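Sample pair:
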Amino acid sequence: MKKLTSIKTRITIWYTTLMFILVSVVLAIVGSLSYQLSIDGIENDIKAQVSQVSERVRNRASKNIFYSVESSKEFKNVSVYLEDGSYVVGQYLYDLSSIPFKEKLRRETVDGETYIVYDEFKPSKPGDNRGYWIRGAESVNYTKVLGRSMFMIILIIIPIILLITAFGGYYITRKAFLPVNDITHTANEICTQNDIKKRIPINPYGREDELYKLSLTLNKMLDKIEDLIVKEKQFTSDASHELRTPISVILAQGEYLLDIADNEKEKELAKSIVDKSNQVSKLVSRLLLLARIDSNRQKINKEKVDLSVLVDIAADGMRELAKSKNIVILTDVSENTIVNADEALLLSAISNLISNAIKYGRESGHVIIKASKYADSTEIVVSDNGIGISSENLEKIWGRFYRVDDVRNDEYGSSGLGLSMVKSIVELHNGKIFVKSQPGKGTEFRIVL
């Protein structure tokens, strides 16, 4: 089963996912660099302070030099120790007093707290092994706290950014795909309303992007299709009109020949002319009816029609055809089943369905015609127990000149226009027609008016 996910949703998901990855990577890099720069700043500051104190110790001019070191705020992270480790002056860090002195920048952890420590030894006199240790130290725990706070802020910011990105991306994508909605809506209207005149609305002041060009191209294609359909309908109408007169003449001459035929061979030839002329005359009449319906020129004279009478007329007209296959025609119509319809057109539609049921019915089978009222609608059902229609052909049977079985259709002189005509008549009455069928079990046509 295909997933019902729109392109807009997929683009939004892809865009949001990409933004999540990019934002996460960028914030992680920025956070890491900020933390490292903070540590580097502390290390440089410690080394600078130790160097300044070392310079003062080296250039001391009096015993009060240590006092000046102790009282100077710029040396708040520096302490001076004797060579045996005894504290002299400066910022005394009790936690670090037991750590051995090393002339090396390093990190030391005491009681869970991390310090950056830098020691430098200064002899009392040149060449003297005695002297002073100058130690600079600063805790990095505050920097770690800031890092953790920044991490928590990032965790809060990322979802907000993602929400803004998702909503913003969906809004932008939705606006960009509005022409696609117009295309889909127009296509659905053409399919449901059978109105080839519909066109995709185009904003003349809109951007000339790919969808704008697609809409123009589709409208041009619809213009071309409409032109071809109009020409085809016009040809069908014109050809049908032109054929009516010669066919009527041929039919009249055939009937005359049948009347004056002297022997069986002449009668057979004349009867063949009459039968074929009747078939062509019926075909032309159907083509004319369809042409008028297509061009909205078919007049419909609606009146109160009693279906019990109409169904009986249609059934009686088909009993001779049914007798040739020993098929029984049964009717079941509720009394006073009145429908507002064009009697002649509706009779033609029902007669055609009965004719098809007989042609494709089973020998010694049956055809059942039912009609009844349901609330505000009226249903007419024509069913048989004949050969049925395969599922792949069910939607095709409404097409003009479509014939499921050419051999059997030729046997009964079918043109493939009957069901197309029935559907057009039903739709002319603002009704619908449905079909159910199973091969070998029969077919049921249901008209809902």
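The first strand starts at residue 78 and ends at 82.
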